[in-house]
Each structure stands twice: as structure tokens, then as C-alpha cells.
Amino acid sequence: MDGRPEQNHELEVASETFREWVREACDRVVAHVESLPEQNAGFDPSRALEAARNLVEPVPPEEGRPLSEVLDLVFDECVPQSFNAAGPGYLAYIPGGGILTAALADFISNGLNRYTGVWAAAPLLVELETNVLRWLIREMGYPSTARGIFTTGGSLANLTAITTARVEKLGEDPSRGAVLVGEHAHHSVAKAARICGFRNDQIHAVASDEAFRMDLDDLRRVIVTVRDRGLEPFLVVASAGTTDTGAVDPLPALVEVAGRENMWLHVDAAYGGAFMLTERGRHRLCGISEADSITLDPHKGLFLPYGTGALLVRRGAALRAAHHSEASYMPDFQDELGEDYQPMDFCEYGPELSRSYRGLRLWLPIMLHGMGAFRRNLDEKLDLIALAERELAAMPGIEIVAPPQLSVLAFRLQSQDGDGAAGDRMTEELLRRILSHQRVWLTSTRLRGRFVIRICVLSFRTHEDRMRECLDIIRDEARGLLEGRA
Ligand SMILES: Cc1ncc(COP(=O)(O)O)c(C=O)c1O
């Protein structure tokens, strides 16, 4: 070396090579997506352990490998050994699907790699993302003074909500605060409360009514009990669509109780919130617009690929107050300018500073498809679950344990003598037989101690043909089991 630093360009890819790589990767993705309807709905996990063990590579490759070899590994070896969460038969857990226009947006934003943690670094790109937040705020019926932030998912949105409620209601001393959570609330809520520093004795479950919604009488009881113990209930977390059954807590009454008791009302609408885009959904989620904060999960109800949640806070200033932080090396933050235009410094509204340019993955699909396409797709999901409910209700031996409140229902097979444990065994066997067809993927849960099968319709790729196929499989297998066929 002659004293001048050696130039290293190894990480820069020649333009033509990059175009070829993009084409190659794109071809693989498109071929994969085209074959989704024929692909297995699930996979056999018994083989996965050995295969995963064989993939362990403690030392990274010192030299690069050809793209096609690497893509073979991903597409041919790894992808088939996974829940087919992108396929039309995925009616398990909470589906989403993964629209390709969002993948395109990720490609663009990662290629651009602009900094969007603060407004000053990319004001117009930040504005595009803020527009999406404005649109969601409007769809939820919130006022324009509401603010929001995109997170990686519902769990982080719930965490951000609890942080905000804690600062707003308890100030510097959270030690006497109590968090009240419906017994069917998603486990990320209690986890978030613990991460926020609340002890287990500060987190209280509220029982459910016969429709798996938060029981208001029990809520009132819990408030009294908690106060008797010297704690202050400052936060009640309701669900607008529980994970188990899609149950929607009685939001108008909860707004009233929370207001009277000086509690923050957070609504975890990670699963159900997107139905606010539809008329039926607005009716069923009535009251949500009065909640202090709402968790949404666009990677569920807006069909995005995994990695996007959102928190909206009705009084936006509270979200900012909980996350404001200063440092001399940071650019100036934007002041509250008024209702008509408010530049957003995202780092002022959530825990992250550097972040991916998350908004584009929702902005581009809305620009390309229009919001109407999302509304109509969500409406179709409500029609599909209504179809499932009608057909299941007519099947001998099937009991619908949780009728749909949104797009989930839960059912089980009853044993002829009414024995619950025998019914559990039969329902477990029914699920095993349904899954063995590899056309639909359903999951189970327990309700009132009994084993039930869930159907959750939320993928934009699920349509009537697959739902009817699912119902035909259930009908045949249930009949076979009741007739004692092996
Ligand atoms: C009701 C509800 N809340 C929160 C979550 C957590 O969301 P995420 O998995 O995006 O963190 C889920 C996940 O399924 C959910 O169903």
C-alpha cells in the first residue's frame, strides 16, 4: 500500500447484475405465488426438526455464493417447511396474506434507504407515511388531533399504548397502578404491562360473559377489589376482536365506565380494527372512536406482509408526551403547529429512532388499489364467515360454540352421549382429519375448558371456492367420525 486507503467496492453490485438478480428473485416469488392455490395448506413438522438441525451453520461463508444457489435453499428447502400463511387455505390463527404491492414498496424503500425517524431528514417521505396514519385515524372515527405511529406489530403497539397510558395517568410513580385486562385479551397485553414494569399483582383479569366479551359486572367488581387493595385502576384494555373467537367487548359501556372511573381505555383491535372500513364492521365496533387508544395490525386486516402494526392515540399530545426525548446531536423537532398541518417526527411518538420506512408498504398498496379494494375484500370476509356459520349449523353433530362477531367462529363435534371429554377427543380427531387433506389450515383453542376448532377468514386470497371446499371437508369428516369410520 502506498499510504492511500485501498478502495473496496465489493459490496456494490454492478447495475446489470443487480437487474438480473432482481429479475431472478422476482421470477421465484411470482412462480411461488402463482402456485399458492395448489400448494399444501400446512406442513409436516415431524421432519422439520431434523432439517432445521442440518441447516445450523456456526461460521458465515467467507466468500459469496451464487444467487441461484441461495434462492434454491430459501425457496426449495425452507419455504415448504412452514405454515402456508400466504395461501388461500390459511384459516388459522389470524391470517393476513401478504399483498405483493407491499413487497414492492419494501423493495423500493429498502433500495432508497432514506432516514424517516425525524421529519427534517426526509420531510416529504415522512409526509406520505403520515398521510397513511391520517387515513387510519379518519377510518377509526378519531378527530384530526389524534396521532399515531407504525410499529412492527400489534404487540409493540400494545406496549406503546400502555406506556402512554402509564405516563398520562400515573406520571412518575407507576407502583400503585393497576391494569385491567379481559380474560380473553391477547397475551401480548399482559406481557407489555410486565415490560412496562408492572408487577403481576398489578395486572388483573376481568371475566367474560357468555359471548366471550368482557363482563361489565365483573369489571365493576374488579375495580372495587383492586381499590380495596390500595391500587389505582388506571387502564382497562378491551378487545375489538379477541384472538380466540373474534369477540368484541362492549365498547360503548366501557367508554362510559372508563370515563367515570378516570381510566385510560385502550382497545386492542389488532385483529378486528380493519373491519371499521366496512359498514357492518363500523356497526359492530361502535364505540371504538371514543377509546383513548387503538391498536391496529395492518399485517392482519389490511393483508400486509408481517411487520406492520399501528397505534393510534385519540389525544395525540399524550402519545408525544410519553415519548418525547431530547439530545444536542439531534435536529430540531417540529412544534405542534395546529390542526391543519402537523409535521411528524416519528421518534417523538414511539420508542424507535432509526426505523425502516414502514409507511410506504401501506401507502403504495392504497395508492395502487384504492381503499375501496380493501373495504370490498373485508366485506367478502364477513360474507364468507356468515356462509360458514350457516353451513356448519346445518351439519349433524356440530355445535357452534362461538358464532362470528367478526370473521372468526369456533365449533366442536358433540359426542352422542353428551360427554364433554369424549367430544374433545372427537373434535381433536376431526381437526387432525381436516388438516390431513392439506387444503385448509385450521387451529384450535379451548373455550370454557372444551376443545374447539376455529375458522378465521382474513386472507385476501380466501374466496368462496376455498370456503366451500373447507366446509365439504368438515362435513365429510364429521359424518365419518360420527358413523365410526376410521
Ligand atoms: C388481538 C391481538 N392482539 C395483539 C396481537 C399481537 O400482534 P402481533 O403478532 O402483530 O405482535 C395479536 C396477534 O395475533 C392479536 O390477535
Could you estimate the helical fraction of the residues in percent? 40-55%
Please tell me the overall pLDDT.
96
Order of helices and strands: HHHHHEHEHEHEHEHEHEHHHEEHEEH
The end-to-end distance, rounded to whole angstroms, is 77 Å
Largest sheet: 7 strands, mixed
Give me the CATH superfamily of the largest domain: Type I PLP-dependent aspartate aminotransferase-like (Major domain)
Secondary structure: number of strands: 11
Task: Kindly report the spatial arrangement of strands forming the biggest sheet.
Answer: 1-7-6-5-4-2-3
Shape: globular
Count of helix runs: 16
Share of residues in strands: 5-15%
CATH topology of the largest domain: Aspartate Aminotransferase, domain 2
How would you describe what is shown here?
This protein is α/β, with parallel strands linked by helices and 486 residues long. 43% of the residues lie in helices and 12% in strands. The chain has 16 helices and 11 strands. The strands form 2 sheets. The protein has a 7-stranded mixed β-sheet with strand order 1-7-6-5-4-2-3, with helices on both faces. It has a 4-stranded antiparallel β-sheet with strand order 8-9-11-10. Strand 10 (443-447) and strand 11 form a beta hairpin. The protein is globular. The protein starts with 14 loop residues before the first helix and ends with a helix. The chain binds pyridoxal-5'-phosphate (PLP). Pyridoxal-5'-phosphate (PLP) binds at residues 94, 153-155, 186, 188, 239, 243, 268, 270-271, 297, 309.
